[in-house]
Amino acid sequence: MFRGLMTGALAAAVGTLAMDLVWFRRYRAGGGQERFAEWEFADDVKTWADASAPGQVGLKLERAVLREDPPDALARPTTNAMHWMTGIGWGAAYGVAARLFPRVQGAAAALGPVAWLTSYAILPVLGVYKPMWKYDRKTLGKDFSAHMVFGLVTAAAFSILSRGLPGLRDLVPGVASRRR
């Protein structure tokens, strides 16, 4: 199970980066000027009002733990941490499920849509998103397609990493070749 968790987490880091490249390409096509590293690591987030949905969830968590509003200086690192932890968490869950139930890998195309749909179920309850039906089709379609990229790339990376490529044992403890 640990092997699945670690392999899934690593695969999801690749999937998250792939999804972010989709969003970045769209950002640049829309006239955005930031370089990828600036955009990826939320250089423009200076206050909590600037934080994206993952950052807003992080704000709510920090408020619950600290019992006070965290300083604006935490908005950017929280936004980054929550974004990456969300993607990696989905991959870790996928990896564990794939190890426990090998047929899960056959349903790899569902990972992105499940993550997408879950965000539209949970984030409105948290007050971070509007209910799904209040978004236009174009917005939902862009979000869905980016999550599809996340899911498919994560599942493909998991499949490749699970085969135990040379040198992988040093990168992910417990991953061994499955040659038969």
Topology:
Elements: H1 2-29, H2 36-40, H3 53-66, H4 75-100, H5 111-122, H6 137-162, H7 168-171
Helix pairs in contact: 1-4, 1-6, 3-4, 4-6, 5-6
Instruction: Return the string of H and E elements.
Output: HHHHHHH
Using the CA coordinates, give the radius of gyration.
Answer: 18 Å
The tally of beta strands, per DSSP, is 0
Structural class assignment? mainly alpha
Q: Specify the helix fraction band.
A: 55-70%
Tell me about the biggest sheet? none
What do you see in this structure?
The structure is a single chain. The protein has about 180 residues and is mainly alpha-helical. It has one domain. The protein has helices spanning about 1-30, 35-40, 55-65, 75-100, 110-120, 135-160, 170. Helix 1 packs across helix 4, helix 1 (about 1-30) packs antiparallel against helix 6 and helix 5 packs across helix 6. The longest helix is centred in the N-terminal third of the chain and has 28 residues, at about 1-30. The two termini are about 20 Å apart.
